[in-house]
């Protein structure tokens, strides 16, 4: 049971074009007690965000159709407050800076170190739970728990 409890399962959009990485991320989110919504590309991620509540996202930085930072920018037009953890196998200079400039909470390298990912994910979930409990700086109907006062 995560910090928000079983009654407050978060909807976590996970987007990665690599099947193994996607399956791993989906499994971790589920083990942490939340509901993963797994997609294999950037455009699909944006399409899902248009029709479903998304509380936070885990996005691969490099996807063939629309990269992670581009996905986050598009999704934030729909969900103003949308925390994101980026994952990448790219170690080239500037990758992390570009992801952080797009508004990423964290940038984690692939192959993922399970304990590190779970720690960062747990920290982000705890921050969202705290914001929800104190009312958060969210406009009505927006934020990680839309529709709640």
Q: What would a concise description of this structure say?
A:
The protein is α/β, with parallel strands linked by helices and 149 residues long. It has helices at 19-31, 42-51, 68-75, 95-101, 114-133, and strands spanning 11-15, 35-39, 56-60, 84-88, 106-109. The protein is built from five helices and five strands.
Question: What does this protein look like?
Answer:
It is a single chain. The chain has 149 residues and is an alpha/beta fold. The protein has a single domain, classed as Response regulator (Rossmann fold, 3-Layer(aba) Sandwich), CATH 3.40.50.2300. The chain is built from 5 helices and 5 strands, in the order βαβαβαβαβα. Strands 2-1-3-4-5 form a 5-stranded parallel beta sheet, sandwiched between helices. α2 runs parallel beside α3. The radius of gyration is 14 Å and the shape is globular. It starts with 10 loop residues before the first strand and ends in a 16-residue tail after the last helix.
Task: Provide tags for this entry.
globular, alpha/beta, disordered N terminus, Rossmann fold, disordered C terminus, 149 residues, 5 strands, five-stranded parallel sheet
According to CATH, the homologous superfamily is Response regulator
Structural class: alpha/beta
Count of discrete alpha- or pi-helical segments spanning 4 or more residues: 5
Q: Class, according to the CATH hierarchy?
A: Alpha Beta
């Amino acid at each position: 049971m995560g910090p928000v409890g079983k009654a407050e399962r978060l909807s976590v959009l996970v987007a990665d074009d690599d099947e193994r990485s996607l399956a791993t991320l989906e499994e971790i989110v589920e083990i942490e007690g939340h509901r993963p919504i797994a997609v294999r590309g950037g455009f699909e991620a944006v399409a899902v965000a248009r029709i479903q509540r998304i509380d936070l996202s885990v996005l691969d930085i490099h996807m063939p159709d629309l990269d992670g930072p581009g996905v986050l920018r598009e999704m934030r037009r729909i969900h103003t407050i949308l925390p994101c953890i980026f994952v990448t196998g790219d170690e080239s200079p500037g990758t992390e800076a570009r992801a952080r400039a797009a508004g990423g909470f964290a940038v984690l390298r692939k192959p993922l170190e399970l304990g590190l990912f779970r720690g960062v994910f747990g920290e982000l979930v705890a921050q969202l739970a705290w914001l929800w409990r104190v009312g958060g700086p969210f406009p009505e109907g927006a934020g990680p728990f839309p529709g709640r006062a």
